[in-house]
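Forum: Protein Structure Q&A
Topic: Joint prediction for protein chains with partners

I've read a bunch of threads here and the consensus seems to be that you should model interacting components together rather than docking separate models afterwards. I'd like to see that in practice. Below is the full input, 572 residues plus whatever partners are listed. Could one of the regulars post the assembled result?
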Amino acid sequence: MDLSSETSVFKRKPFAAFDELRHLPVDLARDSIRNGRYRGHTAGIGLGLLQGNVVILPADYALDFFRFCQRNPKPCPLVGVSDTGDPKMRTLGKDIDIRTDVPLYNVYRDGELDAQTADITDLWRDDFVAFVLGCSFTFEEALMAEGIRLSHIEDNKTVSMYRTSLTAQPAGPFTGPIVVSMRPMRPSDAVRACAVTARYPHAHGEPIHIGSAADIGINDLLTPDWGDPAALEEGEIPVFWACGVTPQAAMKSARPPVCITHAPGRMLITDVPGWAASGGHLGQLV
Amino acid sequence: MDLSSETSVFKRKPFAAFDELRHLPVDLARDSIRNGRYRGHTAGIGLGLLQGNVVILPADYALDFFRFCQRNPKPCPLVGVSDTGDPKMRTLGKDIDIRTDVPLYNVYRDGELDAQTADITDLWRDDFVAFVLGCSFTFEEALMAEGIRLSHIEDNKTVSMYRTSLTAQPAGPFTGPIVVSMRPMRPSDAVRACAVTARYPHAHGEPIHIGSAADIGINDLLTPDWGDPAALEEGEIPVFWACGVTPQAAMKSARPPVCITHAPGRMLITDVPGWAASGGHLGQLV
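Posted by a regular:
Agreed with the consensus. Here's the joint model:
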């Protein structure tokens, strides 16, 4: 990775701010991401469009990871898979290049985080397969549109995420705990949130658990494994959704020589409408 | 394939009739299928359990076929995928052997139907991968439970199926037309059928088209490409669902050296409840 040439790009073009991108049409926002000017989170950018978690693996691991996603559709809802060696996500947009169109990438070597970068063009290989998984931004937009308040968004925090005692269905070398995100809600909102998110099976679908955190092996809600703590207010209960961080936990067991993911919160913004996460339309919308 | 030994089995054990199996618990019905006594259609056997289309391919073709299914979720909703070389469908039941538990198999060589057999144990290879795709039996049960009449079932006929002018999203060597099944309905039933089947994205989901057959390249409803003709009665409109025969059409383009499928109507009966086709629970039910 030639960091010096990256640095020179940033000297020419100053970084862009979140508030600048969120008001741009998606193609202009994508330009800022593509040329390295924006490396921040994507919640609220390209509103109404499907965003996705990204996992890039060598083809030797692709069939087993495909199976891992198929067997664990709630944490790992596949919305797009590239051809081997092809960096274009042809079923998710007219011109989406998985090497440049994510604001920030995590590069894992042997299962351990090795580097972060805004461009993986130099790392791309002819045997890479890119997987895009639906994410919670889709259902959070739907919840807010139905008047359900989400405290982590109001407080500009990252949602709380936890390892659970629930085990993902293994596939080849991929195994590990199911990771969940938690949102505190009043029971009446929790009931509606179940109904609303059930419409989006490709964005984690309905909750995986509700109520007692200890039931799924979470001892202390205030010490999440990822994200910010979120206190329950009087009368609120915790609502748990399967989370797209699950594959990153599985990567620790599989330890592939190389694996590239998005950095948390920095998702791939597609050209496909968010309602594609309601199911069977994927593949026919571009 | 040693047909003489098969014949001797059938001499010892007479064939079982559909009406015998439909009243049996699923494990006993599966025994009759497994030992070759029953080779007929499975609609109505193991009621309430998820049934699936079967496609078995060498591992060289598995990653592209996986992509084909991911990109065409309405005709090809994946509900289970075996490990390479493992004939057990471990996410679909306690003891489901894909070599014996389908009543009748089609064996394709270079994309052409070569043989039909009730047992593929002798054909199984260490590089085979078995894919199971949801099927319309699931949503037909749901429609009938909601009081919607299905004329092909009342008349004991096979649903009408057609090649369309809609093209499946290609993946590697797999390409071809989307195949649809058609059910005639009154408009009021058609509307409810859309709502009911939308609940089952892993069983083809809501219709892919409704009304004018010419819009999707079907010139004559009375000459289906597969199944029996179904005449529209006064006031009825045709309702079209994506169909699990689509992969068999794609096999004609890919022409793998060997591919084994179920014979039409002779599905794999799983241990998983039919409502698993509503989405995200697959993989966690066994």
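DSSP finds eight helices and eleven strands in chain A.
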